[in-house]
Amino acid sequence: MVLSLTLISAVLAFLLGLVYVKTKKPIEQAQQKKIENAIKSVFGDYDSLQTMRLKPDDGKDTVAVYTVWKDSAVAGTMVETYTTRGYGGKVSLLTAFNAGDSITAIIVIDNKETPGLGSRIVEKTFLEQFMNISFDSLPGNKFSVKKDGGSIDALTGATISSRALCDALNRAKSIKDGSSGPQVFPETKDSCCIKDINILKEAMPEFDNNPLEGPISSNGLQIFVGMKGPVPCGYAVKTFSEGYNGNIWLLVGFKADGSIYKINVLKHTETNGRGSRISEDDFLEQFYGLNPDKNNIKVSDEGGEIDAITASTISSAAFCKAIDNAWKALKKGGLK
Questions:
Q1: Fewer CB atoms near the end CB (10 Å): N or C, the chain?
Q2: The overall pTM is greater than 0.70
Q3: How are strands ordered across the β-sheet holding 231-242?
Q4: Is residue 216 within 8 Å of residue 241, measured between CB atoms?
Q5: CB 248 within 8 A of CB 325
């Protein structure tokens, strides 16, 4: 009997593990899609997202900060935040900030507050109290309910839930300012730091200067300029886009006329044997000589000129998006 129970337990554990492995990625993708739809509901269609993950001092889980780029400018910031002080436990939400650091939208993603009482934290009339208010104008530079000396009218019979939402929004501001903890996943413009000039020599036509000295910053990306005498002969842009398993980081080299000279895949976590093939010559060579102003650098499924890697359309499309981000930054940053 002991042997039978052990075998049954082992089989069940294996099956549960298999289900977890099979469903983990679709669940993560569905959650990411939910976040992207939430961002679109606030900012409309956008050009790209710059993602940074932080770990708050008082929490175990990391949260994301999304910088939204639109028309070659920062449209705003969306911050994942939470509180564990809810009456029913953890409350998770997304908070949108404008360029002036005021909250412009709050989307409650998950809560277990009491129906008809604390659950009313999602209601528009309650959330409007937090909108378009400078934190500098608040008592103690943070949101708090009037019972605690603040400016927020608590929900009747749900003071705990009201305090919890204040806590989550104060945490969002702290996360946005980067003061709540160290960055644990280096997914910012400083990722894959370019320190070796030989990498730039591979990416651009021959140059005389040292492009590592004084790179240009544009749209949150770094641009290295190669000079032949007094004239620019090429550019290299460190760029990224969200792939299947995380950010894909590229160094895209351009000739002086804007055509793509060379692409160096700096970093990725795409699936081995599938998305990882973005670094293979057969895929990369499709881009060389193309000019983003004259060619449609998208995968063929999206009406473009690029043949996607078999069974890796997401990775291929993300690769194209990273190049598009690089081109927009380059044009804004001073392509001559």
A1: N
A2: no
A3: 216-218, 221-228, 231-242, 247-255, 260-267
A4: no
A5: no
- C-beta atoms surrounding 303 within 10 Å: 8
- Segment 237-259, tens digit of pLDDT: 999 888 898 889 999 999 999 99
Say if strands 216-218 and 48-54 run parallel, antiparallel, or are unpaired.
unpaired
Half-sphere exposure of 162 (CA within 13 A, CB side): 23
Backbone angles phi, psi at 113, to 5 degrees: -70, 160
pLDDT digits (tens, 9 = 90+) for 142-169: 999 999 999 999 999 999 999 999 999 9
* Cα 65 to Cα 68: distance, rounded to the nearest angstrom: 10
What type of residue sits at position 327? W
pLDDT band at 45 (very low <50, low <70, confident <90, very high): confident
Residue owning tokens 């050009």: 47
In three-state secondary structure terms, 108 is: strand
Residue 329, both tokens: 């930054």
pLDDT, tens digit, 9 for 90 and up, residues 213-228: 878 877 778 899 999 8
Question: Number of helices (H) and strands (E), helices first, in the chain?
Answer: 6, 11
